[in-house]
Amino acid sequence: MKQILFMIILFITSLGFSQKISKLYEQSSEAVVLITTMQSQVTFNNGIPVKKSLSAYGSGFVISSEGDILTASHLVQTAEMICVTFSDGEELLAKVLYSYPLADVALIKLTSPKSTPLVSVKMGNSDHTKIGDQVFIVSSPFGLRHSLSVGYISRKYKREPSYNGLVTTEFFQSDAAINDGSSGGPMFNMKGEVIGIVSFLVSQTHGFQGLGFAASSNIAKKLLLEEHAIWTGIDSNFIYGPITEVLNVPQEGGLLIQKVAPFSLGSIMELQGGIYEMNMEGDHLILGGDIILKLDNIPLIDKESIIKAWYVLQELELGDSLSISILRKGKILEIKKEIPYFFFEKL
């Protein structure tokens, strides 16, 4: 009799939970969008350079009636075109406003208004999230729009840089299913508030194995909505050790440019990305691009100096000049540019 009673209680409890999830999904899913990006890349075919277009997809979510959308930085950082698809099928273009690759968060904005009113979601206080809390994710795994996954917070990670002590990254680990295309999707608490932005998964099979990570909502709000993290449009790798010797870098380290987005700060500084794809020291790198040696006389020789240089970029204002020293095809070049009006106008 006790066992039957327990089963009845368990069934009623699970039914109530399912109904709650369904209701929360209905309230929030319209604000979730599919993001498709396009960018070009030069590769070699039988020694002949060939330019090809690469597409990628992920997710995002609307946070304002003005068309502001939060997503993952790695999805849009070097994109040449960003297309947003809504639940009703309407497609609109968007541009990057702010991006912080270290925390993998970015803010994009629609370049034209939607034909119908936008539905947005509420940002929650991620500091109140605890290990063991139940969460759900709405995203577009493998391009399957508005897919639901449910799980629990498994762990919280927080890291502070050595320069000025500000917290720059904070991630939640969860067993809610995350796959290709989930990046940028919202992670909700059981109040229907966004407490995370899906970032990446850890897997040995290229599929979900119960280890997914999301950047916390508070970090996203701080970096994007308050501090307005500058969009460099650069995909780069910090190199040091044997790789710097192989590439004849005249100092202990540097930033190897992989790709540069048009109309970004990187393109204003006339930086060039690489074209030769190689695996070195276990890392997949695109070689042949510029290597940044200094930014405003700050030698980029370790992670602390890179963080220091980042805050120099954060202080840029209209009319300011930026100086960089780069290694390009074996020669050291000095580049100094005034930040043009159009770069700040788009913000």
TrEMBL record:
Recorded hits in InterPro entries, A to Z, give: Chloro_Bact_Ser_Proteases (IPR051201), PDZ_sf (IPR036034), Peptidase_S1_PA (IPR009003), Peptidase_S1C (IPR001940)
Which UniProt key words apply to this protein?
Answer: Hydrolase, Protease
What are the GO BP annotations of this UniProt entry? Answer: proteolysis
Query: The organism sits in which domain of life?
Result: Bacteria
Tell me a Gene Ontology molecular-function term this record carries.
Answer: peptidase activity
Q: What class of enzyme is it?
A: hydrolase
Designated name of the protein:
S1C family serine protease
Q: Which organism is it from?
A: Dokdonia ponticola
